[in-house]
Amino acid sequence: MTEKLKRCSNCLLPETYETIEFDEHGCCNICNSAKIKKEKIDWVARKKLLDQLIEKYRGKGDYDCIIPFSGGKDSTFQLLYLMKEYKIKPLVVRFNHGFMRSVINENNQRTFKKLGVDVIEFTPNWKIVKKTHARIIYP
């Protein structure tokens, strides 16, 4: 007899999804995190703080802000949102850890070109990359 694949009671993500954990109700940690963010964070107050921070530094230098960029959906959204919503001129800093897949690289370059941003790519010493990744994998 085969065991049935356990899934989140809310979003149906399977137990095979990387880093997934379930609570006593069968709800996954991703859904629980989203629920906390939705219910416990005052997003109106957070937006007001962001507005104040941006206005404090806008126009003070060649760039209005520095945006760290990993190449994933979150940092891409962050970059697009800040440019469209606030009309800022960011300096994008991308950390090159040496494991970037070519499709991500291509997507990043298209994004940078389309948005017309300046980008600095930081490639650290390989020993540092190994050390930081070892801490992530083996905390």
UniProtKB/TrEMBL annotation:
InterPro entries: Rossmann-like_a/b/a_fold
Protein name: LPS biosynthesis protein
Organism this protein belongs to: Legionella feeleii
